[in-house]
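Checklist before submission:
- one chain only
- standard amino acids only
- sequence pasted in full

Submission:
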Amino acid sequence: QVQVAESGGGLVQAGGSLRLSCVTSGRLFQVYVVAWHRQAPGKERELVALIRRDDSTTYADSAKGRFTISKDTAKNTVYLQMNSLKPEDTAVYYCAALEYGRMQYDYWGQGTQVTVSS
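Returned file contents:
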């Protein structure tokens, strides 16, 4: 089993920044990818960014140039630094872990609310 727990959400004005944290625990040797997803009201959940075990990253087009995903292996923590936030970034942000050999994310956090005011 793997556990993930997000923190760092909040209310910020447009143009501001937030840093989200995802603390992971459990069978971390099985984890291949840790990803940030988000879900806005009335919309489907979407991938924002992910980081693989080899530190390679992938970003959604909406996140490129504004968001940065990184990890601190010693702290078992993955971060999402969000800059130049826009009202359309308002959503619940979820951290999820994907194990080797799996095709779907089996481990999800409870989510953290990010609200960007205009």
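Reviewer check: The chain has a mean pLDDT of 96.
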